[in-house]
Write a structure and sequence with these properties.
The protein is an alpha/beta fold. The chain is built from 11 helices and 15 strands. A 5-stranded mixed sheet has the order 3-2-1-9-10. Bound molecules: adenosine-5'-triphosphate and magnesium ion.
Length: about 350
C-alpha cells in the first residue's frame, strides 16, 4: 500500500515537472471532447484549467449576398461552401430560433456521420474556433473517442482516424483517449484513478472501469439525450428540437410528472438508465479477467444527460434493482458534467511524453 502511494506521488511529481518543461518550451497540452452534441476544448492556464465549447451543429442555406450580409451583421458564424452558406456552432441555435429552421449535425450516435457531406468541413470549422494550430511541432492534444457500440467497430475506426488526421494537420501530436476513461481522469484523481467513469451524452452513454488509470472494461450504448428527445417527441407529437428545449429548461426526475411531455420524459429517462446499468452489468459479467479490488469502487457520472435533478437517484435505484458483480462504494455526479470529458482528455495529454 505504502509502495503504491510512493509510486503515485512520483507519477504526480513527474507530471508537474513535465508541465513546467512544456510551459518553458511554450507548448501547452490540450484536451478536446468531440461529442455528438457539443465540442469542448480544455487547456491548462496559469490559473487552472480553462474550457470553451461550441454546439456541434449546422444549418446550410442557399447563398445570396444579402443573406451573407445579414449573417455578418448578426454575429452568426458561417462559411461559404459552393452555392451554400453554412451557419455553424453555437450560433446555429440562435439562427434556428429566428427562422424556425431544422438543425443538422456532423455526428450521430457518438460518431462522425459518414453519409453527411458537410460533416468534415463543419467539424473542422468548429474545432478551428476552439483551438489554434499547434505553436510548436508535436504539441500534445488528447481527443476523446467513444467505445464502439456493438456492430459499429468499423465506423469508430473511421471516426478516430479522421479526427487524428485533422489534428495532425493542425500540427499536434494527437492521442486518442476513451471517453469513460477521460471521466475517470477528471473526476477520480482522489481515488488513484480507480473506479467507474460514465458519460451520458447526446448520442451515447459510455462507461469505463479503470484500476490505477488503466482501463479494464469499456462499453457504450447508442442511447443518450437524442434518443430521449426523439422518443418523447414521437409519442407526444412534438418535434425532438422542442422536447430538447423543454428537457434542458429543467426536467425534474425527482418529482411526479405534471403533464404529458414530462411523463414521457420520465419514461424514457428510466429506459435510458436501465439500459445503461444493464450494459454495465453485462460488460462486467463478460470480462474474463476482472482485476480484484480490495475496496468497493466509486461510480462517477458525467455528460449533459446526467444533469436533471433526480438523475443520480434514478441511477442508484436501477443499480439496486439489477446489481453488479462488484461492490460499489457510492455514486456521484461530476463537478461539471458538460466539461468533464474534455478536462480528462487534457489530463491524459499531460501524461503523454
Ligand atoms: N440541463 C440539462 N438537462 C437535461 N439535459 C441536458 C441539459 N444540458 C444538456 N443536456 C443534454 O445533454 C446532451 C449533451 O450532453 P454532452 O454535451 O455531454 O454530449 P456529447 O458529449 O456532445 O455527446 P456524446 O458523448 O454522446 O457524443 C444533450 O442530449 C442535451 O440535450
Ligand atoms: Mg460526450
Amino acid at each position: 500500500m505504502e509502495e503504491r502511494k510512493d509510486h503515485l506521488w512520483k507519477v504526480a511529481q513527474e507530471v508537474e515537472d513535465r508541465l513546467d518543461e512544456m510551459e518553458k518550451a511554450g507548448a501547452a497540452p490540450a484536451g478536446i471532447d468531440v461529442g455528438t452534441s457539443k465540442v469542448v476544448a480544455a487547456r491548462k492556464r496559469a490559473k487552472g484549467i480553462e474550457t470553451a465549447s461550441q454546439l456541434n451543429a449546422f444549418i446550410p442555406i442557399p447563398y445570396s449576398r444579402f443573406t451573407e450580409t445579414i449573417l455578418g451583421q448578426n454575429d452568426i458564424s458561417y462559411f461559404r461552401e459552393g452555392d451554400e452558406l453554412v451557419v455553424f456552432a453555437t450560433a446555429t441555435e440562435k439562427f434556428a430560433n429566428m427562422f424556425n429552421a431544422e438543425v443538422s449535425r456532423p455526428m450521430s450516435d457518438g460518431l462522425i456521420n459518414p453519409r453527411e457531406k458537410m460533416a468534415l468541413p463543419v467539424l473542422e470549422a468548429i474545432i478551428g474556433s476552439l483551438l489554434p494550430k499547434a505553436k510548436t511541432q508535436g504539441e500534445i492534444l488528447a481527443f476523446s473517442v467513444p467505445a464502439a457500440p456493438a456492430g459499429k467497430e468499423a465506423e469508430l475506426t473511421y471516426h478516430e482516424a479522421t479526427l487524428r488526421r485533422h489534428f495532425e494537420a493542425m500540427g499536434y501530436k494527437a492521442v486518442a483517449i476513451n471517453e469513460g476513461l477521460a471521466v475517470v481522469f477528471s473526476e477520480l484523481e482522489d481515488n488513484n484513478f480507480t473506479g467507474i467513469g460514465l458519460s451520458c451524452g447526446g448520442g451515447m452513454c459510455n462507461g469505463t472501469l479503470a484500476f490505477l488509470s488503466i482501463p479494464s472494461i469499456m462499453f457504450s450504448i447508442a442511447k443518450g439525450g437524442d434518443y430521449i428527445d426523439h422518443a418523447v417527441g414521437s409519442v407526444v407529437g412534438e418535434s425532438a428540437t422542442r422536447v430538447k428545449v423543454i428537457k434542458e429548461e429543467g426536467i425534474d426526475l425527482s418529482r411526479s410528472p405534471k403533464d404529458k411531455v414530462e411523463k414521457a420524459l420520465h419514461i424514457y429517462y428510466e429506459d435510458l438508465v436501465e439500459s445503461l446499468v444493464e450494459a454495465l452489468r453485462r460488460a462486467m459479467s463478460r470480462a474474463e479477467k476482472m482485476p480484484k479490488s480490495d475496496r468497493p469502487l466509486p461510480i462517477v457520472i458525467a455528460g449533459g444527460s446526467a444533469k436533471p435533478r433526480g438523475f443520480k437517484e434514478l441511477f442508484e435505484r436501477a443499480l439496486k434493482g439489477r446489481g453488479l458483480p462488484i461492490e460499489i462504494s457510492g455514486v456521484r455526479l461530476a463537478g461539471d458534467p458538460l466539461t468533464a470529458t474534455a478536462r480528462g482528455a487534457l489530463i491524459a495529454a499531460m501524461y503523454e511524453k
